[in-house]
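Blackboard transcription, Thursday session:
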Amino acid sequence: MESKSRIDTISLVLFVVIAAVGVASVYSATYELGAESILEGRSGKQLMWFGVSAAIGVIIFLLNANFFELFSMYFYVALMLLLVVVLGIGSDINGARSWIKIGSISIQPSEFAKYGTAFAVATLLSNIDFSWNRGKDLIKIATVILIPMGLIVLQGDTGSALVFLSFFLVFYREGLTPTILVIGLVAILVFVLTLVFTSLYFSCGTAVLFLIFHAFTYSNKKLLVPSLKILGIVVLFSLSVQFLFDNVLQKHQQKRIQVTLNLIEDNQGAGYNVNQSKIAIGSGGASGKGFLNGSHTKGNFIPEQETDFIFCTIGEEGGWIYSSLTIGLFMAFILRLYHLGNRAKKKFKRIFISSLASIIFFHVLVNVGMTIGLMPVIGIPLPLISYGGSSVLAFCIFILTALKMDASRDGDLVSAYA
Amino acid sequence: MNKLRSNYIYFGVVLIGLVYIIRLLQIQVLDDKYVNIAERISLRKQTVYPQRGLIFDRNKKLIVYNDPVYDLMVSVPIRLKGIDTAAFCQLLQIERKEFDTRLAKAKRASYRGKSVFKKNVANLLYARVQERLFEFNGFFFEIRQDRNYKYNSAAHLLGYLGEVNRKQLKAQSEVYYEQGDFNGKKGVERFYEKELRGVKGEEYFYVDKFGVSRGSYKEGKLDKEAIDGNNLLLSIDIALQQYGEKLLDNKMGSVVAIEPQTGEVLALISSPFYNPTKFNIQNRGKFYNMAINDPTKPIFNRAVSAPYPPGSTFKPVMALLGIEDGAITKNTHFGCQGYYRLGRRIIKCHGHTFSTSLQRSIASSCNTYYCNTFKNMMQLEKYENTEAAYNSWQTYLSSFGLGKKLGIDISGEYRGWLKDAAFYDKMHGAGRWNYARIISLSFGQGELGLTPLQIANIAASIANRGYYYTPHVVRQLENMESIPEKYLVKNYTMISPDNFGPVIEGMQEVTISGTASHIAIPGINIAGKTGTVQNPHGKNHSAYMAFAPVDNPKIAIAVVVEEAGYGSTWAAPIAHLMIERYLMGDSIGPSARVYLENKMIDSDLIPYKYKGLRNKSLYGE
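(Written on the board underneath:)
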């Protein structure tokens, strides 16, 4: 009784709704008094990219279900080559060499690199021999991630490179020991505390905690050595953070981080964007100022408001109701994608789809967090909402590929639950 | 294991979602600081200034109209990205250094998102800058109404506008004025400020980060339209006013002419005067110090603010008081040997017949007659002592409006000097003074000071045979049913109407056979009284008071020319010329009294000590 499985309606609807919110937001963010309809200008272009994506989507759905799995490494290699090419012939926009100009349109290969990397990661992890305990495998997986990250950093777009950290969520999901995540989180904690209190005070504080800990557990001699080791590592890390922060990071990077941690107030300089963004969103109130009525976004007080700071328009004009609704939509979409991954019978598909979910999650986490002052300013787009052809096209193809994989799951053999 | 980790991830996604939604709740709903900041940054209020009421003369000739002034403003917070500062400086014709200081100052003085960059930009410069202003984001013009004048005349009476000062801003019970607004500072501009100013309107709109308007706020629901001020019709006859100013040119003094039947002021002149245009918003900065430093005090409104001893022009009042009080009768004669003896003191009189009647005493201005009258009054048996008699005398005078402000609708009115008995008690000791101490009051000298307005009002009261209307310069206020109530009621003097006859006869004789007979105007029956006021600081003041025609008075007039000499030489001719001009209007030939007219116009009676200290540019066009 082979029932032909269909495209997942829930995620398709969420996808279309988020895309519609995106077009409307871009229209509002670039709206000029007495100006064109939604079909013209930047919103029109955005709409066109969704159209192009739909056309590509049709092709994707016409392809054989196994096409992607068969050619996955070619996708990866091709897209990595594109990243190399951009370093050679790319053109500079805003100080980053991440664009290839073809006629009148510019393509940003780094947006597509995530798609390719997801294929490579899925291929590697779904290999029947793969083991997290084998060094060769770890090197392989690390290489696959570090190649695009390195190339993108070379382009001068650190923000986009950081997105590849989202694969760690997939690795965790696929069995990588959580220790590395815990160490990562502790590292972030130490990093923040060091910058807040300086490494000297932080180290002293940790030492005091260590003494108190031993005062309660002095009978247990076994704990002494490992906890001393941890103390040493933490202090060493804190000192190196201080050193790196003071001597390696550039002034504007230091400031961005300090502004985010509320260590300095710099509303005219490094903190200008975030401050204006918070004002715009905050002034939206509970129900917003109404579509096209955002005085702060309309007044062009926020730079990049149709791209990285698009969430300001939603927050100001839609208020808390619409901004939380948008967050809700994204969270629902991400959860649904994880669910699609979970229900896939093939490991390859599961990893590919959850890579997509993790990447979207990372984008939303960082992008929205930045506009409301919870994250440092890292210039990555809000998926499907921020204006930008490459981002829209890459995410759409990514999502449609994932939906195609899900739609064709019925033909798959059940793989072992590893 | 994997199932658990998958659930952890689900949980992590939901947790982050909730954290963000709560964070949004915090900055959007719970904390309203951002709303205020956003409005401060992008919401602007533009004041719409109404047209100030126009001012006309009694014949509906336009005197004062509006003239826009342009203030170059800058948006605050100031963002000057992408502005070609050099080009802007060149356009404004200022140095880069000045640009920087002005900008710094504007930054400090910001008020409601804007600040003045350059005040009162000249019309020509405005036209040139406005054309290219779009290149300089953040700069814009604010237009306000300044005054301009059809005639180089009536400056004191009209007054001028100025910026509301800090004290006035603070004292407002209902906030209307803002820093930088104009209001009337002097004259009718000040007195009728509320009627003339109208009501300011407001427009709210959003601006972008360059301060450029982005459309109205809430579709203009909060906007208020400006209501234009009411036009004001003055009782002044601008032709008469100008004629009087011509006669009084190069003299220090004052003329006040009143229509007795209504109390309307026909002309109110204070000389030296200034060109009102030189004192409007655009020009005053340049001329104010010049005016202040001029020893002839050209901005001092002598007509309502300067107290002069009335001298002999006071004698008709003394005669009226004497008859009313019973000190003399209409038929009383006093002998005069050319002086009045008071113990060892002698008060001189002029050459005239030995025995004077009431009428002749006025016509020939006999001092002796009034010394006797005053002595009788102070010694009347009905009074307990001199103090009581004096207080009664003072009460009579107050009924003419002396010693108090009459209540004219011009700022700066002075009440004059009229002391009460207590003053002399203090000076000489209670009960230790009598008429002899204060005898000079009887002929208008001593501790007595009347403004030209008060003297003119005496003339009007005599013309009316016993009452006056409070003098006023308003004739009609647009959109108001009537002029203020107090200008419509008769104020009665304490003299009964019957007693005016002989006094008026005497005043008539002045112009027939008395001190002003040499300048009688054929065809016009004038009742007058000359005065030569002793002045301890220089030459005598020349004074005159008159009304005409006697039987149906149309004009009552007072003239004072400082440090000029006899009343009959200067003040009387000026008064007569003005009376003739007013009553005969254009029907008098241009050459009727050419000699007299030219003598008045051409004479420079400014005291020698002030010559060379005056700056003529204050008066000219």
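Lecturer's comment: The mean pLDDT of chain A is 87.
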